[in-house]
Amino acid sequence: MKKPKKRKSKNTAIKLKKLEIELKEAKNELEIQTWGLEKTNKAIKLLYKELEARNKRLRELDKLKSDFISTVSHELRTPLSIVKEGINLVMDEIPGEINEKQKKVLTASKDNIDRLTRIINNLLDISKIESGKIELNKKEFNVAGVITRTINLFKSKAREKGLELKAEYALKKINLYADTDKINQIFINLVDNAIKFTDKGVIEIFVREKKDEIECVVSDTGIGISKSDLPRVFSKFQQFGRVPGAGEKGTGLGLSIAKGLVEMHKGEIWAESELGKGTKFIFTIPKEKTRARSRSD
Amino acid sequence: MKKKILLVDDEKDFLDIMSQKIRSWGYEVVSASNAEDAMRAFKRERPSAAILDYVMPEVNGVQLLMRIRAVDMKIPVIMFTVKPQSEVIEDAEKLDILAFIPKLSPYTDTQANLKTALSIAFQKEKGKNAR
Lengths: 297, 131
What we know:
The structure holds two protein chains of two kinds.
Chain A: H1 2-91, H2 100-130, E1 138-142, H3 143-160, E2 164-169, E3 175-179, H4 180-196, E4 202-209, E5 213-220, H5 254-264, E6 268-273, E7 279-286, H6 288-296
Parallel strand pairs in A: 2-4
Antiparallel strand pairs in A: 1-3, 4-5, 5-7, 6-7
Chain B: E1 4-8, H1 12-24, E2 28-32, H2 35-45, E3 49-53, H3 61-71, E4 77-81, H4 86-94, E5 99-102, H5 110-130
Parallel strand pairs in B: 1-2, 1-3, 3-4, 4-5
Helix pairs in contact in B: 2-3
């Protein structure tokens, strides 16, 4: 009867031995893993330091890029304004008479100075938006006033192309608490774009007051945007021209700037279009928040 | 007698071009390329209106306007700048500025704007004198 008891204790001893070996192995494994983790940790810390240094360098480079664009843009504007006014002076024949051929050359030069000015302005704006340098100078204003200013700005350009440029908004005041200059810039960029891509018909601005937001629409009867191009319409430097060869050359930045400015106001912007049937650019600016800010101010 | 206009801009080429243009509208032009010369010319010539550039080294357009306002509160003043921003306009409006004209805009005609601003300045003056 004593035999099975002896076997049992022998079995227990073997089991214990096995467990001891397993434990030792696990300990070894743990030690190896700890060593590995320590190594990985050190490597991660090194990488983190390197990433931090690179990040700092990138921020410095980004600031340098923005400062460079800003300085260059300002420095370019002064000589450009002199060239433009000089051309105007000659075209008005103040220093002496010029012939029709010379006038034509000067008109083309002037148009290209305006084009260059738009490029400089857009580069400066996009660089400010991207570097977060633009601060919103919010105050309460009537949207109708901004629309009237935009229409006055483009009246002659629209007339030159035989286009009707009009605004339809409720006669009552639609007040907005936002940055007037930036909202004006959004309308300018959208109307400028609409005129570029519309050869006949109407460009119309609508403003609707909704429950929580103000919805603004700039619609045209132009050449439209293809379905495949619509998703990239707000991307930078996109000059797909809606259809090949159509429209005037732009900077490919106007819509991207408009989107950046709308988003700074926590609004949304999108386009609805069909090739040959015109385009609608719609943007919204939240109202509730603006009212709350307005009260607290 | 021709109305005298004080034109101040640190860019001499711009001064020359705009002086020729303003003269062609029938005004007399007194020009200066910095604030010190501008103040001297202002006191000596007593112009009927002043056109100032906003961006100038050392003393900018608004600072110069403050000096002018210390001597003359009534003179119509027009201000030029490369890119108008509402904060700048607000600053200038406090000093009773007649017009704020962008020096370089792809959408507007600087010379036409200036001509309109000058005629408004003198129409207002006429109105005041008539009263």
